[in-house]
Design goal:
Elements (H helix, E strand, L loop, with lengths): L11 E12 L2 E12 L3 E5 L6 H8 L7 E6 L2 E2 L5 H6 L2 E4 L11 H8 L6 H14 L1 H5 L10 H13 L5 E5 L7 H16 L3 E5 L3 H7 L2 E6 L2 E6 L1 H4 L3 H6 L4
Parallel strand pairs: 3-8, 3-9, 6-7, 7-8
Antiparallel strand pairs: 1-2, 1-4, 4-5, 9-10
Helix pairs in contact: 3-6, 6-7
Length: 246
């Protein structure tokens, strides 16, 4: 295992300390330690069933941990309700999008900004997402359920962005998308990174994760088994064989 990057406490965005989570008697997360640097873009990769989605759900408060601590900017959040965590500045873009399909594109975006009181900031963020995804601006009066899969993923990402998060959680944003839409989504993720938003990306497509993230964590059977930069991990024979197909 590569050693975890040393980060000063003042630079830490989110930290998980010895986190356990069970489904019945089955361990989903086991003594998981994870620390993200502010304004970084980091990825978690691993096989199906490794605990990647569970990891994001316990951070955003959608599931309770059984043991351990989760600290966001130095404050413990694992005992808080999900809506309180969201108000602290954590936005979760879930797997398979979870849109309000009978509502319009614009109504879905507005739902993302429900706790944002600064209307000028909302206008700036709205302009930003429409610049990222011009198709959403064209279809802002269209029902979300009538969009293509790629357009729905754009909308899910836009809804998270207008919450003005300091930490953005992205769960499998490329899932089920055609290559062109994958490219557009990851171009947008890179632009979000450039705004200074800390981003934790869970991604099944390891090649995409390696091309995008500054630091990568390998999650297997609920444990972080390896972590490092792209350059470090590409030297590991098992990573090359299992995840990169080299």
């Amino acid at each position: 295992m590569k050693s975890e990057e040393l980060i000063e406490e003042s630079e830490v965005s989110i930290e998980l300390k010895k986190v356990y989570h069970y489904y019945g008697k089955a361990k989903a997360l086991e003594e998981l330690n994870l620390k993200l640097k502010k304004q970084s873009l980091e990825a978690v990769i691993g096989p199906n069933g490794a605990g990647k989605t569970t990891l994001l759900r316990v951070i955003s408060g959608l599931e309770e941990i059984d043991r351990g601590k989760i600290l966001f900017r130095g404050k413990r959040i694992d005992e808080l309700d999900a809506y309180k965590i969201a108000r602290m500045g954590i936005a979760h873009c879930p797997e398979r999008r979870k849109l309000f399909y009978d509502m319009t594109v614009m109504e879905n975006i507005e739902m993302g900004a429900y706790s944002l009181k600064d209307r000028q900031k909302y206008k700036e963020l709205l302009d930003f997402v429409f610049d990222l995804f011009p198709r959403l601006k064209e279809r802002r009066k269209q029902r979300a359920g009538t969009l293509s899969g790629g357009e729905q993923q754009m909308l899910a990402l836009a809804r998270a962005i207008v919450a003005n998060p300091s930490l953005l959680l992205l769960d499998e944003p490329s899932l089920g998308l055609a290559p062109l839409f994958k490219e557009k989504i990851f171009e947008a993720i890179n632009q979000i990174k450039n705004t200074g938003t800390t981003t934790l990306l869970v991604e099944q497509d390891a090649l995409l994760a390696f091309d995008t993230a500054q630091y990568i964590h390998v999650l297997e059977e609920g444990k972080i088994e390896m972590r490092g930069t792209r350059e470090e991990l590409e030297k590991e024979p098992r990573i090359r064989k299992v995840y990169l197909g080299i």
